[in-house]
Specification:
Elements (H helix, E strand, L loop, with lengths): L1 E6 L3 E7 L5 E8 L6 H18 L4 E6 L2 E2 L6 E2 L11 H9 L3 E5 H12 L7 E7 L3 E7 L2 E2 L36 H5 L1 H12 L5 H9 L3 H24 L4 E5 L12 H8 L8 E4 L6 H7 L9
Parallel strand pairs: 1-4, 4-7, 8-11, 11-12
Antiparallel strand pairs: 1-2, 2-3, 5-6, 8-9, 9-10
Length: 302
């Protein structure tokens, strides 16, 4: 049995998978506020409860924002800032009394979709998270590519490509720079664009519904968002040329983004034509936690 944990800023999710990938159990609880230790205790409780209910012990993989620094062994680059500078993998291993495998949440998402999701038939899969932040993960042959500095796939912290004059220098990002792709493609960015046009505050989901109802500013916002997304994805194709790009996160549920997106990406990519498949995640918001479970070796099903 494999147990996966998705340690998010607002929720912690646990899943147990059998050897074939079937879900045995799934639980989701709010992430406790406060110090560093409380989320860890919640993870331990979720694992203990799952194993007691299922009557067996499992391997444990954890998806978390940020990554483990190759220099210090501590978490870096997490937008859940309470985790930064902490030995999260070692602390969880001590708490659970067994080895724990920990990876960036976007990497886990990409692995999940490459193993048995929207990219299951592809060799090179790039997974994209469009939500509170913007993340990415690269999987080749069902193996996560983490890179020399463990930041492979972090396309959200590159500048928005081919910026318009009114997109310079761009909004401030928590990473300390301006104009990162994340600041244009996160959910708050879509709400910000709508507010700048109307003075009204709507969520990304509400903007999509308004656009369907004929709200012109909402439609303009979605068109602009799609163009920015296409610019960002074109650079991914220029560098990695994946077989498939899988979109996840809350904004991936906005169906208006998919129509015409491959053709728009093709306008920006360095090629005479682009037929890269762009798909919605097969496992929805459970992909990250499933990928965490798959961090342990995959048993051949041949």
């Amino acid at each position: 049995m494999r147990i996966g944990i998705d340690l998010g800023g607002t929720k912690i999710e646990a899943i147990a998978l059998d050897e074939a990938g079937a879900t045995l159990l799934r639980r989701r609880v709010p992430t406790p506020a406060g110090d560093y230790t409380r989320p860890l205790s919640t993870v331990a409780d979720l694992v203990a409860t799952a194993e007691k209910e299922l009557g067996q012990q499992g391997t444990v993989g954890v998806a978390a924002p940020g990554s483990i620094s190759t220099r210090t062994g501590l978490i870096k680059n997490s937008n859940s800032t309470v985790l930064n500078g902490k030995p999260l993998d070692r602390d969880l291993s001590t708490l659970l009394g067994r080895p724990v495998r920990l990876e960036n949440d976007a990497n886990c998402f990409a692995l999940s979709e490459a193993v048995d999701g929207a990219g299951a038939d592809a060799d090179l899969v790039f997974g994209v998270i469009l939500g509170t932040g913007v993340g990415g993960g690269l999987v080749i042959g069902r193996k996560i590519i983490v890179g020399h500095n463990r930041i492979a796939g972090e396309w959200g912290h590159n500048p928005l490509p081919w910026p318009h004059d009114n997109e310079r220098p761009g909004p401030a990002c928590y990473c300390g720079k301006h104009g990162c792709i994340e600041t244009f493609l996160c959910g708050a960015a879509l709400s910000r664009d709508y507010r700048s046009r109307t003075g009204k505050d709507l969520t990304a989901e509400e903007i999509a519904l308004a656009a369907d109802s004929g709200d012109v500013p909402a439609r303009e916002c979605l068109v602009l968002y799609q163009d920015r997304l296409a610019r960002g994805l074109a650079t991914i194709i220029n560098v990695f040329d994946p077989d498939v790009i899988v979109l996840g996160g809350g904004l991936s549920n906005i169906v208006q983004f998919y129509a015409g997106l491959p053709a728009l990406v093709g306008r920006y990519a360095f090629s005479d034509g682009v037929d890269t498949a762009i798909k919605r995640a097969a496992h929805g918001d459970s992909s990250g936690v499933r990928g965490a479970a798959w961090l342990w070796p995959i048993v051949s099903r041949g």
